[in-house]
């Protein structure tokens, strides 16, 4: 039996999107020495809103809108990965993930409390 609420569904999507952001950031970091590699990213807030409005596919991984990040300075080999930018992005994603986990944990605690209250 699966117990979900609209909020827990939204938090699951939020965590999936945050995980996808961390994977993309890790990929950018892994390619820091690849000649010609362009930093990829996506607009987190826009993707999340699209998911919440149902205008995006349910499976984020299949429908991710990943684009090259504009405005970064490229080195002579054409690579524009900035480890400073990626480090900040990874820290931001980790904080977002931790927040999502805490909110989801609280949501399930509330559901369990309601179930136990009904049982009494």
UniProtKB/TrEMBL annotation:
Chief site of localization: other
Claim: Ribosomal protein is one of the keywords in the record: no
Keyword terms: Bacterial flagellum, Cell projection, Cilium, Flagellum
The protein's name: Flagellar basal body rod protein FlgB
Organism of origin: Edaphobacter paludis
Function of the protein: Structural component of flagellum, the bacterial motility apparatus. Part of the rod structure of flagellar basal body.
A single GO cellular-component term on record: bacterial-type flagellum basal body, rod
Annotated ranges, domain Flagellar basal body rod protein N-terminal: 18-38
GO biological process, alphabetically ordered: bacterial-type flagellum-dependent cell motility
Record family assignment: Belongs to the flagella basal body rod proteins family.
Gene that this sequence comes from: flgB
Assembly and interaction partners: The basal body constitutes a major portion of the flagellar organelle and consists of a number of rings mounted on a central rod.
Domain of life of the organism encoding this protein: Bacteria
Location(s), subcellular: Bacterial flagellum basal body
């Amino acid at each position: 039996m699966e117990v979900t609420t609209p909020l827990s569904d939204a938090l699951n999507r939020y965590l999936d999107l945050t995980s996808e952001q961390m994977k993309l950031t890790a990929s950018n970091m892994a390619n820091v020495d690849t000649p010609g590699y362009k930093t990829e990213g996506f607009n987190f807030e826009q993707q999340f809103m699209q998911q919440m409005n149902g205008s995006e596919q349910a499976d984020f991984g299949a429908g991710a809108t990943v684009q090259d990040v504009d405005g970064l300075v490229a080195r002579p080999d054409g690579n524009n990965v900035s480890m400073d930018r990626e480090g900040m992005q990874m820290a931001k994603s980790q904080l977002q993930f931790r927040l999502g986990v805490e909110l989801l944990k609280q949501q399930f605690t509330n559901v369990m409390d309601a179930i136990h209250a009904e049982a009494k």
